[in-house]
Amino acid sequence: MAGIALRYLEIARRLPKLAGVETVLVTPGDPAEVPAGPFEVRRFVRGGLAGLLADCQGAVAQGQLANDLLLECPALPTAIDLYDPWLVENLHYFRTLGLDPYRNDHATWVLQLSRGDFFLCSSPEQRLYYLGWLTALGRVNPERVERDAALTGLIAPVPFGVDLELPAYQPLLPPRQPGEQRLLFGGLYDWYDPWTLLAALEKLGDRPCRLLIVQNPNPEGTPQRLFGEVEAWAKKRGWWGSRIEAIPWVAAERRFDLLREVDLLVATHRPSLETDLALRTRFLDALAAGCAVLSSSGGTVARQLAEAGAGWVVPPGEPHALAAALEVALDSPAERHKRAETGRLLVERYRWESVLAPLVAFCRDPKPDPDKERFAFLPQTVAPADPPGFRLRRRLSRLFGGRR
Questions:
Q1: Helices (H), 91-137
Q2: What share of the chain is helix, strand, coil (3-state, %, to 5)?
Q3: Which residue, among 77, 46, 37, 43, has the nearest Cα to 60 in the 3D structure?
Q4: How far apart are CA 281 and CA 350, in angstroms?
Q5: Residue 152: other Cβ atoms inside 10 A
Q6: Do 260 and 184 meet the contact criterion of CB atoms below 8 Å apart?
Q7: Average pLDDT over residues 350-368
Q8: CA angle, 106 as apex, 128 and 86 as ends, to 5°?
Q9: Could you tell me if 158 and 351 are in contact, meaning their C-beta atoms sit under 8 angstroms apart?
Q10: Please, which residues bridge with residue 183 across strands?
């Protein structure tokens, strides 16, 4: 189970109590695999949502499945969850996947932002970005602004939440080597920047420090170009399996055990639109678990870390600055503890009971937006054809069963 599935499981656990509503969790997977909670679980059936949700007065949905909801249940008041800006993330896979994901993602956002009734995002930065989309699609209009000048009834931040009462600790990783210190990067996606971290580790010399990266459980659906490049780099230097170790995907309920067994979470990124819009969920989990963190500057979480002094924030792409911060963090357990405790105070603002307030208000009284039928429109998504060479490689790959 990954981020979005966790998000919806946690929301479903809390809405019955917070909003006083009966809650149905719809999943494309096996309902028997969903952990028990104060909600009913139903299996997603494409083409059958109208019957499946006939007893529901409102809905909240995310990703491609929200298209089915809007098209099959157009009268059902719907909150569209834009927490994960996957259109922006997928731009980074253009050289691997071609333009088809962009065409699909852009058309999906046009549909959802024109037809949804209420919208969730992760941060003030995201909210301004999506308000640009909503304005372009007619959802920010004179009548809307007249009755809701701040547009709080149209779109509101509902970030990922945390629960500071964590599960009891259970050992997860093998015992450390004598003197070994552990850094956790987590999953490697194409918008991250592991190279600055690797250059910084080279500057630290022979310090007994092990970097852990997490293998993606769905490599066919998520391109692993960057992971492969880091693996090749590390093998060439004799680091793979010693100074850099790939570990399997950790079950959702065990992720806090992993964070309790490392000295520092380090996730570095490049300046990009994705960085500006992302809420790095791994940092919220780390802060809740009392794990010290180190980030490149840029984005919501890095800004809040810097403002609170909760962790280390360094300029992107500067290995000297990163190496200096790593030395301080690894050589001073007292400083790590201090900043980790400050991080736990910072993450208090992300308690689920607090961050869900806008969604709770919608669920208590779900209503369609009265303006969308008269103001909203759906422009056509336009993108050029993929280059002939790319189309040929893709066809050959599909014929012979290789990866694109």
A1: 94-97, 100-115, 124-136
A2: 50, 15, 40
A3: 77
A4: 11
A5: 11
A6: no
A7: 97
A8: 65
A9: no
A10: 211, 264
17: amino acid identity, one letter: K
State the DSSP string of 194-229. HHHHHHHHHHTTT--EEEEEEPPS-TTTS--HHHHH
Helix (H, G, I), strand (E, B), or coil: what is residue 118? strand
Instruction: Using alpha carbons, select from 211, 256, 254 the residue that is nearest to residue 231.
Output: 211
What pLDDT is recorded for position 193?
A: 96
| Burial tier of 165 (Cβ tally within 10 Å: 0-12, 13-18, 19+) | exposed
> How far, rounded to the nearest angstrom, does the alpha carbon of residue 292 sit from its chain's CA centroid?
20
Q: What is the DSSP letter of 350?
A: G
CA dihedral 57, 59, 64, 68 (to 10 degrees): 0
Q: How far is CA 47 from the centre of its chain?
A: 28
pTM as predicted: 0.92
> Angle 104-108-112 (CA atoms, 0-180°, nearest 5)?
180
Residues across the chain: 404
Query: Does residue 266 surpass a pLDDT of 70?
Result: yes
User: Are 268 and 296 a contacting pair, CB within 8 Å?
Assistant: yes
Q: How confident is the model at residue 252 (pLDDT cuts 50, 70, 90)?
A: confident
The DSSP secondary-structure symbol of 91 reads G
The pLDDT tens digits for 73-99 are 999 999 999 999 999 999 988 888 899
Backbone angles phi, psi at 109, to 5 degrees: -65, -35
Q: How many helices (H) and strands (E) does the chain have?
A: 20, 12
Q: What is the DSSP string of 141-174?
A: -HHHHHH-TT-TTTEEE----B-SSPPPP---SP
Question: Per-residue pLDDT for 390 more than 90?
Answer: no
Helix (H) or strand (E) holding 320: helix 319-331
